[in-house]
Records
---
Amino acid sequence: MAENAGKSDFQKTFLIASPREYFFEMVDNGLSKRNVKAVPAVQTYLVSLLEHYLDARNLFEEPAGEGENKKPETLAEMFLLAANSDRVGKVDLLKKLGDRSLYISGFFGDSLERKIVDIDYYAEMGGAAYGSLADHVSDDMVAQVYRIFSREFLAYVDVLTYISQQSMIQSDQSLLRLYDRYMRTGSELAKEKLIEMGVLTLPKDQAKLARQD
């Protein structure tokens, strides 16, 4: 396997059955490389987070329609709106705030350092959102996950930053966006790029057979 020498774990050839399987491998590697011990529920949550933001539109609020209240434009406004919402609205807004802060800090932390609002602000707001969220959910395991993110927010930012750097998700030639495009449209250009980047995509049934060989 000399041809793979010097490549990172994420740049080697993969048999990808679904983005979720790939995200599980990325999260597992990220936690290991950053020496962060995580309960399975936290690992699963991070995978779901990556899946959700694979569609970049989920990073942004839909504009308010005619007659609707103005959408919050800052994290602080979102936190204030959550504080004055009913339980369902509070949980929804706090989760969006925590998740968005965590993802943006991990994947776009370098750009935040060049802005007035820096990563410390995102960490403060995200940690506070998760901490408050833990007090408003009925499931003890889910509450535990949120408390972990609240206490160790920056540690998980480091995990996502590592994943971002290794997987090139933040670039226009994103491995996962290319994969998503190929799976949705069958684009030959996307397929060629995936092959060029060292990624082998197979239909799910073929991927399972390949793992059995």
---
Amino acid sequence: MTLSDQNVTDLTTFAGTWILDPARTSVEFHTKAMWVVKVKGTVKAIEGRADVGSDGALSGTLVLDATSFDTHNKKRDAHLRTEDFFEVVKYPTIVFTATGARPVLPGQVELTGSLTIHGQSRPLTVLASVDVTGGHGTVDAEVDIDRSDWGLSWSKLGAGLANHLVIKAHFVKE
């Protein structure tokens, strides 16, 4: 069932603990270099969970492996791991911590929380669709971030600071 199937006005229908299935989860990012060259890649989700209370309150996490950035360009990927960008030796993960959620449109929920990158946390609100079938749930979301908000401002002439993230997170009810 999706949120719209039930015309859900709260999340009590989904009460319980949901554990991320990293093998069925994907995170893509898109940006531009030299103003026009599209760069896209992936980063691996390594763990996560969502706890939905009997009152509909939600909390959760999605943890990404910052060492796994893959743009299909080994030189660029190695540079992303350095101090110029993610400094993965010191900050090996990127974490979204959800602190709340509320249905906002048919089939969609607004997730509120914070995103921690490079040791810095900033508030982030994400609009997502939720599809639950039995004990399996998928959360699809897209969000735009400016990496300079997290101190990642290194830029070769024309390199974009804006990034578009596409997340498809699959959860299994515990």
---
Amino acid sequence: MIKVAQDTMSKQLVFSLLGLFLFSSFGRCLLEASPAPEGVIHVEVVRLRSNKGQVSCSLYASAEGFPKQVEKAVAHVLAPISEQKAVCEFPGIPAGTYAVSVYHDENSNGKLDTNFLGIPREGVGASNDAKGHMGPPKFDSAKFQLPGGWLNLKITINYL
């Protein structure tokens, strides 16, 4: 009878240690592998002067390239215009700090048209309705936090 009790206790100890090992190995991996919460950034662009063309929206995760170099954006969307408004959505975006720049590509040529001084001839805007002084707005003026989940932004287009 003592031998049976010892065998049972030995089996329980082995199973307990095995369970502890599996949880500490795989449980930790599962916890560490959890990605940052993803979200959707929903941008409503308002006060467009016409329904011509399209709206170009770019999402930046740093000041590098903001607001002009679309190739440095983490995401880019072209949105149709209806009733002088457009909506750009950026799904699957990890939590973090971002800024959005937009322009009204009235002639649908895929670029922001400017005059000989570099002043935009088409409407422009940025998150937080940030405006530049003697140039485009800075990333720090336009940045916002995405904690995850759904974030609504409204950007008013300005024509210079």
